[in-house]
Amino acid sequence: MRVCILGAGGLGSVIGGYLAKTGVDTTLIARPAHADAIARDGLRIEGVRGEHLIRDNLTAISNPAEATGEFDYLILATKAKDSDTALASADCLRERVRTACSIQNTIVKEQVLADWIGDPARVMGASTIEGGSLEAPGFVKNHVTVPTTAYFGELDGTISPRAQALADAFNKAGLGAKAVDCIQQVLWEKLAQICNASAWSVSTLAGNNDLTFVHGMALREGAEHYVAISLELLAVYTALGYSPQNFYAPLSRLKDVYECKTEEDAVQLILGFGERMKQQNYVGRTSMHEDVVRGKKTEVDYIVKPFVDKGRELGIPVPTVTAAYRIIKVLDHYLA
């Protein structure tokens, strides 16, 4: 198997590194400093799976034109807002890729890939909750994982050999994965989960750069705000015909909130979750919150806006989500 990861920053490097470690011929397309460091010294990964230095089966380049041969899979791992630029730079790979998929946080990514590759049949659905951050050139941290961290499936609701093959490769690499016949639902539920955490954390915590997720989750007002967002997202999600599955348990709490008999029960659930994180000395932020802290533009239009738009389309009020979207858009306007 040959895999090319376009946009190998933190997450892309984590996934590519683990695949390479178990024998998958992997090409990382990354920023020049990161690619040069990997080519010179190997890729260093630290985190939930220990420490690794990976050299074998791994090629790191900064220009897609330097990639050689054909690839079974191209995995798009850039920020959603950078998709067009990244894909345009990779036009030279279009005819050498059998299957393209994306692990970005957006519901439109498969259509973006289909437009680029020119054939929707060569695009497969993919989703992951795995966490990776680029700490320095050649060095990434793998700070988040769950038992099933990735899903693959065809957009027509079938499980194909190519979906199963990529899931098998991920499993062999220690990245728990499944091939499923409900990838569209996985994509919507993951977006709801990411939207919940992102809209909540930025609209709650962005005024103080010292605050992390646990600081708001363990306070009643923070838990109430979190639940208000959850209930609105669940209203849209269930109106699409889905019921929450917690695909990314134990990180996801949507199903738990959905099954609470009262809103107060849900608030108590989130307060308990926050208290457990506090006792475990959990320190972390969502990617969107981290972008705001670092002064970088966010992916609010890809993560939060789809629920604002879908709520309007379906006639479902989402006032808290809409307010959070407006707050983040104002912040976003002044970010680089």
Structure write-up:
α1 links the parallel β1 and β2. The protein folds into two domains: 180 residues, NAD(P)-binding Rossmann-like Domain (Rossmann fold); 148 residues, N-(1-d-carboxylethyl)-l-norvaline Dehydrogenase, domain 2 (Orthogonal Bundle). Helices cover 47% and strands 18% of the residues. The model has no long low-confidence stretch (mean pLDDT 96). The chain has a five-stranded parallel beta sheet with strand order 5-2-1-6-7, with helices on both faces. Strands 4-3-10-9 form a four-stranded mixed beta sheet. Strands 8-11-12 form a three-stranded mixed beta sheet, sandwiched between helices. It has 336 residues and is of the alpha/beta class. Pathway: Cofactor biosynthesis; (R)-pantothenate biosynthesis; (R)-pantoate from 3-methyl-2-oxobutanoate: step 2/2.
